[in-house]
Each structure stands twice: as structure tokens, then as C-alpha cells.
Write a structure and sequence with these properties.
By secondary structure, this protein is of the alpha/beta class. The protein has helices spanning about 25-30, 50-60, 85-95, 110-115, 115-135, 150-155, 175-180, 200-205, 240-250, 255-270, and strands spanning about 5-10, 35-40, 65-70, 100-105, 140-145, 165, 185-190, 210-215. α7 packs across α8.
Length: about 280
């Protein structure tokens, strides 16, 4: 049997309670499936302690993917964020070996987040976290929904040059090219396994493999082949990452093993990792 290519799950929420019953079993299964590394992503301050605990737990296991840490304050939860939370985030950046800051950005998917006050607060927290990223020389993991132009504008205004990943990319080809020009890789999720995700297929085909990375965004974004029900969500896990690779290889008409090698290299570049 040929050796599985090394895979890097660049975006997981493997710390959330969905995984409390079987996290260790799934970590071993992910390693068996070829997932050598994963990133644990933050989203609210009240989960920072669990994020750190899961990070340490995964890295204490002998046969599991190596965990990389990316704490951050997610725009979708803007109502929960307080000024103090930025200080708590900085404390983690000072005391832990963090790989990136994430997930951060702008999100106007919900009507209430389009309101001037909520959006202004999102911009404030995004700008503050970009400043922290510059101060601590970290790339960022971007969450962008219905706000690609505004996000690009802020990155340019802040002269942000450390790059990172535009996670679960949902924009168009020109927007994707604009993020790539700023040094960002485009995060491809299980959505790529859906033939009807025409916008995403157009983006990956226009950009090519050198600008892409893989992610599960578990427990969300479950690949089509792993969904067991139309009525309720099927939990996604890092074990499903090979299906994302498969879907992307199919979309790009690329060899899976060669593509995996390129994506592994891209992940290291995006996250500024050396080994």
C-alpha cells in the first residue's frame, strides 16, 4: 500500500465540546489518515482555557497530529467581545508558542452585524488584532463573510504584510487574487466536494494549487460524502481531510500525491513554520 501523503488541517475547532467524548480516538484516526498537523483556532475569550488545554493534550499524545495554536476573537461573536479580551489574547501570545492569530476578520452575514455600531466594533477588534499580529510577527487566519472588499481595505490600510490564510473562502476569483497578492493562501474546505459549489471551483481553478491550503473547519463544513443526513448536521472531524484533498484534486485534475506535497509546502509558508 503506498504511503499516504502528509496532510495539514489548517483550520479546526477540535477543542469544542462536540469532541469531548472521543477526541483522543479521532486524533489517532486522523494521524492514521495522514493528518500530520492541525491548527487549533480561537473564537471567544471564554474558550481560551479549553483551547490551550486541548493544544497541550494533543501534543502529549504520541500518535496524533501535532497541534499548532492560533488564538483569536471571531467577528461573528462580536457581541461577546470586550476590551479586556484583547489583553487576554496578548497574554497568550506572550506566554505560549502561538503560530498565528485567528480567526479574525469581518462578517456581515447576519442583518444585525450590518448595523453601523456592530460593524464598527468588528472593525475595531479586527484592527486591534492585526496590530497584535504585527507586534508579535504572526500571520493571521481570516474569517470573511459578505465583507471581502472591506477586509481587503483594512489589510491595506494597516499595511499588513505577514499574510496567513483566508479561511473557508467564499469570495470570487478577483477577490481571491487580491488576497493572494497580499500574501494569503486560500483555505479550501469540504465544500470543494460539492459539484454545485461553482464559485469555489472557479476560484481554485483560476488560482492554481500554489495558492491553496486544506482545512476541515471541523465540526462544520463536512464533505458531501461524509454527510449522513439532510435534516441535521453530520459532525466533521480532522479524519475527513483526505476527502477534501480528493475533492480538490478532482477539481484541479491533479495527481493527489503531488497536490498534497504542494499543499503541505503552502501550509508551512502561510503559517511561517520552518519544521
Amino acid at each position: 500500500m503506498p504511503k499516504l501523503p502528509a496532510l495539514f488541517d489548517t483550520h479546526t475547532h477540535f477543542d469544542v465540546p462536540d469532541f469531548d467524548p472521543d477526541r483522543e480516538v479521532l486524533a489517532h484516526a486522523a494521524k492514521q489518515a495522514g493528518v500530520e498537523r492541525l491548527v487549533l483556532i480561537g473564537f471567544v475569550q471564554e474558550r481560551f482555557a479549553d483551547l490551550l488545554q486541548t493544544h497541550d493534550f494533543l501534543n502529549s499524545l504520541s500518535n496524533a497530529p501535532k497541534s499548532e495554536l492560533a488564538p483569536g476573537l471571531h467577528p461573528f461573536y462580536i457581541e461577546q467581545h470586550q476590551e479586556q479580551h484583547l489583553q487576554d489574547l496578548e497574554q497568550i501570545l506572550q506566554s505560549e508558542a502561538c503560530t498565528a492569530i485567528g480567526e479574525i476578520g469581518l462578517d456581515t452575514f447576519l442583518t444585525q452585524h450590518k448595523a453601523a455600531e456592530a460593524f464598527a466594533k468588528q472593525q475595531l477588534f479586527f484592527a486591534a488584532q492585526l496590530e497584535l499580529a504585527k507586534q508579535y510577527q504572526k500571520p493571521v487566519l481570516l474569517h470573511i463573510r459578505k465583507s471581502h472588499a472591506e477586509t481587503l481595505k483594512m489589510l491595506k490600510a494597516q499595511r499588513f504584510e505577514l499574510g496567513g490564510i483566508a479561511h473557508a473562502f467564499s469570495g470570487g476569483v478577483e477577490e481571491a487574487k487580491a488576497f493572494a497578492k497580499l500574501g494569503f493562501k486560500i483555505g479550501v474546505t469540504g465544500q470543494i466536494t460539492n459539484p454545485n459549489a461553482k464559485k469555489l471551483h472557479a476560484v481554485v481553478q483560476a488560482l492554481g494549487a500554489e495558492h491553496l491550503v486544506l482545512e476541515t473547519d471541523c465540526p462544520d463544513m463536512t464533505p458531501l460524502c461524509c454527510q449522513h443526513s439532510h435534516e441535521q448536521r453530520t459532525r466533521n472531524t480532522p479524519v475527513n481531510l483526505p476527502y477534501v484533498l480528493q475533492g480538490l484534486a478532482h477539481s484541479l485534475k491533479a495527481d493527489e500525491v503531488q497536490l498534497a506535497a504542494q499543499l503541505w509546502k503552502n501550509s508551512f509558508e502561510a503559517l511561517r513554520l520552518t519544521a
